[in-house]
């Protein structure tokens, strides 16, 4: 058995980023599109997540100069241990996209998405579709490794429609992947059934690089059992509306209702600092984006849905918390994650407006025959 944890170099000088972090502790916030943004990563890191992976960034988008990827991969000020996940299907494009994102943010590692089951992604031979083509996946890892000076990892499923994770894991190890994370379901299963941790363990026995398991982890007991097997443990849905889960895994008590309200409020403040431009509309848009997560925080109060599904401002959230928990947070100030509205976004808008008015001008000229 190749117990991947015992095969780590003992000399810490020789350990790469992942090996060092896994030696310190192995509970990691898993990437989640639409969720693992800067505010949520910050909260989870503060509660003890070893590192946190960003939402996935399109490598092709980066190469084509699409600013959305730059926005998605952006770390919060002084973010430690940034790992950016990219998706793509062609080695040269993923390598170039990876290089661009590395040049922007110097992440500690870059992770390749091989697990996304969404048609928009698999239809372009990306995400979990790579599980059907281990050779192409390995070529991507090789090219990415050559393009960036940091460890490259991959997060995969057990297979696309049938299990072939051992074959893929071997190919990726040979291509130079530093770590493999495995979500214990095939892509076809999406999120149904139970994650198969025996299959994840079989991967750890097959390869010499560290393996991180993902799927259905909610408790300290599960975490400890999987760690005993030598696996790193990723948490995704278990952290939604519950970022303190990382502290619980290390022995903290479950928070009281009032503490939960405080964390939810802090999340809303970080979220507004990060996304809102300070205008009323900016606040509304940011709060809308956060609503589904706020509902998760307050799931233990069934009546909260009726109010929080329409919450539109921090003031309204504070009023809800005051009414429900007799806790006045309205005076709490949080300046973390305050960022100047990115210049590039404004410029892009301006350019777009200019383009529009130039187009309009041209059409007007044509209409009047000039
Ligand atoms: C809303 C959502 C978005 C996700 N986005 C990604 C993603 O962008 N990249 C990725 O590798 N996995 C993604 N995943 C998969 C998770 O990282 C994780 O492997 C999976 O949810 C199983 O873990 P859990 O039971 O702890 O949620 C996503 C999962 C969810 C629920």
Would you give an account of this structure?
This protein has 370 residues and is an alpha/beta fold. The chain has 2 domains: 19-249, Aldolase class I (TIM Barrel, Alpha-Beta Barrel); 257-325, no CATH class. It is 48% helix and 11% strand. The protein has 16 helices and 8 strands. The protein has helices at 17-24, 38-46, 59-63, 67-73, 91-105, 119-122, 134-147, 165-175, 197-206, 220-228, 245-249, 257-275, 280-297, 304-308, 314-325, 343-367, and strands at residues 27-29, 52-58, 82-87, 109-114, 152-156, 179-183, 211-214, 232-235. The structure holds flavin mononucleotide. Residues 30-35, 55-56, 85, 113, 115-116, 155, 183, 214-217, 235-238 line the site of flavin mononucleotide (FMN).
Strand order of the largest sheet: 1-8-7-6-5-4-3-2
Order of helices and strands: HEHEHHEHEHHEHEHEHEHHHHHH
* Biggest sheet overview: 8 strands, parallel
CATH topology of the largest domain, by name, is TIM Barrel
What would the principal axes of the Cα set say about the shape? globular
Kindly report how far apart the N and C termini lie: 79 Å
Quick structural summary:
Helix content is about 50%, strand content about 10%. The chain is of the alpha/beta class and about 375 residues long. The chain has an 8-stranded parallel sheet, sandwiched between helices.
Question: Keywords for this structure?
Answer:
TIM Barrel; 2 domains; eight-stranded parallel beta sheet; 8 strands; globular; binds flavin mononucleotide
């Amino acid at each position: 058995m190749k117990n991947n944890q015992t095969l780590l170099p003992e000399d810490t000088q020789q350990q790469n980023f992942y090996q060092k972090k896994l030696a310190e502790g192995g509970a990691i916030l898993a990437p989640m599109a639409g969720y693992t943004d800067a505010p949520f990563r910050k909260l989870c890191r503060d509660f003890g997540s070893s590192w946190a992976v960003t939402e996935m960034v399109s490598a092709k988008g980066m190469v084509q100069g699409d600013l959305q990827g730059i926005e998605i991969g952006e770390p919060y000020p002084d973010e430690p241990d940034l790992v950016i996940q990219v998706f793509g299907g062609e080695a040269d494009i993923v390598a170039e996209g990876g290089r661009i994102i590395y040049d922007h943010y110097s992440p500690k590692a870059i992770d390749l998405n091989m697990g996304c089951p969404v048609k928009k992604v698999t239809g372009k031979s990306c995400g979990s579709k790579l599980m059907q083509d281990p050779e192409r996946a390995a070529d991507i890892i090789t090219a990415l490794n050559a393009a960036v000076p940091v460890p490259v990892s991959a997060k995969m499923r057990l297979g696309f429609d049938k299990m072939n994770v051992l074959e893929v894991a071997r190919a990726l190890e040979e291509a130079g992947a530093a770590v493999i994370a495995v979500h214990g379901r095939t892509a076809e299963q999406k999120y149904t059934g139970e994650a198969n941790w025996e299959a994840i363990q079989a991967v750890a026995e097959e390869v010499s690089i560290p393996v991180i398991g993902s799927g259905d982890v909610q408790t300290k007991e599960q975490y400890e059992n999987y760690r005993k097997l030598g696996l790193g443990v990723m948490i995704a849905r278990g952290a939604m509306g519950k970022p303190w889960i990382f502290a619980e895994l290390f022995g903290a008590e479950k928070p009281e209702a009032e503490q939960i309200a405080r964390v939810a409020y802090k999340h809303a403040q970080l979220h507004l600092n990060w996304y809102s431009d300070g205008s009323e509309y900016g606040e509304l848009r940011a709060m809308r984006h956060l609503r589904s997560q706020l509902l998760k925080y307050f799931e233990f109060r069934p009546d909260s849905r009726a109010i929080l599904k329409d919450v539109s401002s921090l003031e309204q959230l504070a009023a809800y918390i005051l009414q429900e928990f007799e806790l006045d947070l309205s005076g709490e100030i949080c300046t973390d994650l305050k960022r100047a509205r990115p210049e590039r976004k404004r410029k892009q808008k301006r350019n777009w407006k200019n383009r529009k008015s130039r187009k309009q001008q041209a059409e007007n000229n044509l209409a009047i025959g000039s």
